[in-house]
């Protein structure tokens, strides 16, 4: 899984949280650095919305065109963004500071659902 955020402290804490739950997480400080690395092999993406350059909404839209099955979670510390139309209807949407247990539960659910859907595709 990948985490994209321009805040190095948040990147580090999210990576530690996910790894403590047994996940392998790769951190990226921008959407561009993730895209250069590539989307192959990712099973989930967590991205901040408010970043310089390409923001989290733009990254999500691009990822959904290339890998529509990839679960994408958006996080933001700016509560006005959370109320925008683009944020509505997103199951993986978290406001900072977010509840670590809720995030881990959502990650687990998304990965299980994706695996189940993959089983039906055969």
Q: Any overview of this molecule?
A:
The structure is a single chain. By secondary structure, the chain is an alpha/beta fold. 46% of the residues lie in helices and 15% in strands. The protein contains 5 helices and 5 strands. The chain has a 5-stranded parallel β-sheet with strand order 2-1-3-4-5, sandwiched between helices. The radius of gyration is 14 Å and the shape is globular. The two termini are 23 Å apart.
Segments where pLDDT lies below 50 for 5+ residues?
none
User: H/E element string?
Assistant: EHEHEHEHEH
Intertermini distance: 23 Å
- Overall mean pLDDT score? 85
Quick structural overview:
With 122 residues, the protein is α/β, with parallel strands linked by helices.
List the helices and strands and how they pair.
Elements lengths: L1 E3 L3 H13 L5 E3 L2 H7 L7 E4 L7 H11 L5 E5 L2 H4 L10 E3 L4 H21 L2
Parallel strand pairs: 1-2, 1-3, 3-4, 4-5
Question: Notable features of this structure?
Answer:
alpha/beta, 5 helices, 122 residues, 5-stranded parallel beta sheet, single chain, globular, 5 strands
